[in-house]
Design a protein that fits this description.
Keywords: Signal
Structural class: mainly alpha
Strand content: under 5%
Signal peptide: 1-26
Helix content: 55-70%
Organism: Mastigocoleus testarum BC008
Protein name: P pilus assembly/Cpx signaling pathway, periplasmic inhibitor/zinc-resistance associated protein
């Protein structure tokens, strides 16, 4: 009986000693894919380029930045987590907000909600501008090439 116990212990030790290097080798050969980190869309800290030519006061600049930040958050709230990631990547890679949104395969309800957010944002920004700045902005817009009938009408 005692011989069987000793025999079993020796067999167990032999097996563990023999298989340990194999397990270690197998673990070292497993390749773990490297995933690039998702870049978070940058929080706007300056006014959008089209407003930079309007001679804004510091107060107007800070108000517009706040409106843009709020709009970005409202947009994020409308999107699914997968769409949020795609949107953030597109913005981080330098795409304009409209281009990034067009690439997201949005539902009709999401499109309606986004149009409402963007219209509200536009109205808020216009309320910050003086009449002269609104005229200047309109003139600047007329010099830009027309991008289409609307945000999602392509």
């Amino acid at each position: 009986m005692e011989f069987k116990k000793i025999s079993l212990i020796i067999t167990a030790i032999t097996l563990s000693v023999a298989t340990t290097p194999l397990v270690a080798k197998a673990q070292s050969e497993i390749e773990v894919p490297q995933v690039a980190p998702i870049q978070v869309a940058q929080i706007p800290t300056e006014v959008p380029p089209k407003f930079q030519k309007l001679n804004l006061t510091d107060n107007q600049k800070s108000q517009i930045i706040e409106v843009v930040q709020q709009g970005r958050q409202e947009i994020q709230d409308i999107l699914t987590p997968k769409q949020q990631q795609k949107f953030k990547r597109a913005i981080a890679n330098g795409r304009e907000k409209r281009q990034a949104l067009r690439s997201l395969n949005l539902s009709n309800n999401q499109k309606r909600e986004l149009k409402a957010v963007m219209q509200s944002q536009r109205s808020e920004i216009e309320s910050i501008l003086t009449d002269e700045q609104k005229e200047d902005l309109q003139e600047l817009k007329s010099n830009f090439p027309r991008r289409g009938a609307g945000l999602f009408n392509r």
